[in-house]
Amino acid sequence: ASAALIARNTNHTGPVRGLDINNFQTHLLSSGAVNGEIYIWDLNDPSKPYSPGARSSKLEDVTAVAWNSQVPHILASSSNSGYTAVWDLRGKREVVALAYGGGAATAGGPAGGAFATGGRRGMSDVAWHPDNATRLVTSSEDDSSPIIMSWDLRNARAPEKILTGHDKGVLSLSWCRQDADLLLSCGKDNRTLCWNPQTAELIGDLQAANNWAFQVQWCPRNPNLIATASFDGRIGIHSLQSTNEAEIASENRTPQPEGADIFDQGNFGLQAQQQPTLSLKQPPKWLRRP
């Protein structure tokens, strides 16, 4: 381990919950921690991190940071204060702070809520649209309002859509790079859900874990694969194409002679290791009929 360590730095004064590497300049790493601390690190010289601007008064503990997928100098950071701040690193300033105070918003329709004063609901994660530089989603970790909000920065007063389906707070988001119609979320209800964020429709539900699911990610190179992590100590790798695995397994099971028990089966123990599958209501972009 000591041979693998490249650098160590103690600039942050508390726990670091957010990390993200810039898609365009892969030597740039952003990190977020307590008290609104956000640093940009140049991995070629990690000894001198710099700040994206003056510390925001709206951010308390930073829960996630995410680089814009189209514009290399735009960064978003979510916080447990209920605000999500968007930073312009070229201008070294905070350009907008998003917050939602509730209201008559309904799943699938434009939000009717007013701009919040902050502190209502802790924001747990933020993810940028893979193709549109002005759109992003944020998630609430508040059990009383476990929602995902879709925003357009051209009208940042209220979210465009509210995605409702989780029973408890949402902890992680991942937007598919290859298909903007696929968004993953997971949370304290042990569930991992797949959404169409354009229509706010719930299109897939992965079998629940045994504990909080706190991280979900699309595989960046192979979008057929997703990974989930939960507090039961497991990381699950799931495929979008293995939707009939249970049926295939039952068809291929060799019949056992009369009087045999489970210990006589050649595949003893394999059933317990089978991963749950994610069956979607719509085909991913790369599997649609041309």
From TrEMBL:
Descriptive protein name: Protein transport protein SEC31
Residues passing through the membrane, by range: none
Regions of compositional bias (Polar residues) in chain numbering: 246-255
Pfam families in alphabetical order: WD40
Record bears the keyword Ion transport: no
Keywords, in A-Z order: Endoplasmic reticulum, ER-Golgi transport, Protein transport, Repeat, Transport, WD repeat
Protein's cellular compartments: Cytoplasmic vesicle, COPII-coated vesicle membrane; Endoplasmic reticulum
